[in-house]
Specification:
alpha+beta; 5 helices; 34% strand
Amino acid sequence: MRPAAQGRIHCWEGGSLWVGEAAGNARFHAHHALQISLAFSGSTRFRTRSQNWRPFTAAFVPSHLPHAFEAETAFTAQVFVEPETPEGRALLARFGSEAITELPAGEVGLHAQGLRALDLSTATAADLQHTARRFVDGLAGAHRSAVVDARIERVIRALWRSGRSELTRGSTGAA
């Protein structure tokens, strides 16, 4: 089945939210961003090269981990977080970088209330961003470091300003 989705996408510096209906599958792929996948109804399944298909209600997918995704859900949220951000580092510290992990149901239930309650027909871009970031902050919580490597911060800002999505060796000097 080919992937099909209907909903809203909102991006901000350091992350994005993809929320709505999903059906179909995505073949093996990997991405730099950390992925949090929430199935508010229906089901989502993931597999890796070393794990068979497994159902998840709330999954954490680390950076650069090849995985396949399958969904049949009337309402899902996919939150992507750059691993270099304070939230990304906190999520990696909590949930690891080696495998897809089921997120703690109690915490997800508590922090995902806003995402679950979104009315996609009336939510503004600010609503989407605020709700997604609040969810991520809730999961990162006390594990979040207040210290950000200034070099990483400069490079991320330079990329956002330039509109580029990748760097070549030596191109960060101007950042």
